[in-house]
Structure formats: C-alpha cells, structure tokens
C-alpha cells in the first residue's frame, strides 16, 4: 500500500501550502525592498512602503520578516531590482503595457518577448503605445495555484 500513508499526504499538502506562502512572501519582500530604496525606510514618510506593509500584514507576513527586509534594503542589499515597462501589441492589435520588477533585464526581456509571441502578439519599441495610455488604476492577476 505504497503512497497511502496519512503522514505522507499531510506532508505533501503542507509542502504545497508552504511553497505558495513562501512565493507570496518573497514577492512582497522584493516590492518592499524597492520601495525602501526609492523613498526611505520610514513608513510615515513613504506612503508606498506603508501600503506594502499593510499588504504584507494582510498576507500574514510576520513583522520580523518585514523589519528584516527593510533593514537589509536600507543597509545596501547587493541585489538591485529595477522597474521596467514593456510595450507591445496583443492579439488583434490591442495595445498592451506591462510593468515588471526584475533583477535581470536580459532574462525579463526574453521572457516578455516569448509571452507576446506565444499568445499572438509582438513586443514593440519604447513609446510605441505609451502615448495611448494614462494610468487610472492597477489590475492585479493572482496566479496562486495556477501555471503562469
């Protein structure tokens, strides 16, 4: 009766949920680090940081993790994350702008080109569609438990 152990089933479920939580913690941690580098480590004077701390608490990130991320970002973390905006055309000629946060510009550009090509679009040059957009809000696509 291999594979029918109750402990094995519990262990596998726990691995899956812990992995998903760790992914969310890492993503929020990167966003916090970028916010600290851009506006400082004080949430009272950095509204973006304050909003990200609230988001982290809503996702059950422990306070010591948040403080550790802020201290590391203030202390000169070696990893430099960069905000990039890609523009292009989706299926049917729909203008698309994608904002990303990356530590490797080349890998991200290749991935974006791949995704545009895979779904029937093409990646454009900087400024090819940005004149058509004004920022009104943010759309967040939650890929938890889904393949991107």
Q: Can you put this structure into words, describing what you see?
A:
The chain is an alpha+beta fold and 148 residues long. It has two domains: 69 residues, Arc Repressor Mutant, subunit A (Orthogonal Bundle), CATH 1.10.10; 51 residues, 2-Layer Sandwich (Alpha-Beta Plaits), CATH 3.30.70.980. It has four helices and three strands, in the order H-H-H-E-E-H-E. A three-stranded antiparallel sheet has the order 2-1-3. A hairpin with a 5-residue loop joins strand 1 and strand 2. Helix 1 packs antiparallel against helix 2. The longest helix is centred in the first third of the chain and has 34 residues. 12% of the residues are buried.
Please give the structural blueprint.
Layout lengths: L5 H34 L7 H12 L4 H12 L7 E8 L5 E8 L2 H14 L3 E2 L25
Antiparallel strand pairs: 1-2, 1-3
Helix pairs in contact: 1-2, 1-3
Termini Cα gap: 35 Å
CATH C-level name of the largest domain: Mainly Alpha
CATH topology of the largest domain: Arc Repressor Mutant, subunit A
Helix content: 40-55%
Give the number of domains. Answer: 2
**Largest sheet, strands/sense/barrel:** 3 strands, antiparallel
Flag low-confidence runs. none
Task: Provide a short characterization of the protein structure.
This protein has two domains: 6-74, Integrase, N-terminal zinc-binding domain (Arc Repressor Mutant, subunit A); 82-132, Alpha-Beta Plaits. Helix content is 49%, strand content 12%. The chain has four helices and three strands, in the order H-H-H-E-E-H-E.
């Amino acid at each position: 009766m291999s594979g029918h152990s109750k402990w094995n089933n519990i262990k596998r479920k726990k691995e899956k949920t812990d992995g998903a939580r760790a992914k969310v913690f890492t993503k929020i941690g990167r966003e916090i680090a970028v916010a600290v580098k851009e506006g400082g480590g004080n949430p009272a004077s950095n509204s973006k940081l304050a909003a990200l701390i609230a988001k982290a608490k809503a996702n059950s990130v422990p306070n010591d993790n948040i403080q550790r991320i802020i201290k590391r970002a203030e202390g000169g973390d070696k990893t430099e994350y960069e905000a990039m905006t890609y523009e292009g055309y989706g299926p049917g000629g729909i203008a698309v702008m994608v904002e990303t946060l990356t530590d490797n510009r080349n890998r991200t550009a290749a991935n974006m080109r791949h995704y545009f090509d895979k779904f029937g679009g093409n990646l454009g040059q900087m400024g090819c569609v940005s004149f058509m957009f004004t920022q009104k809000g943010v759309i967040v696509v939650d890929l938890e438990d889904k393949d991107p």
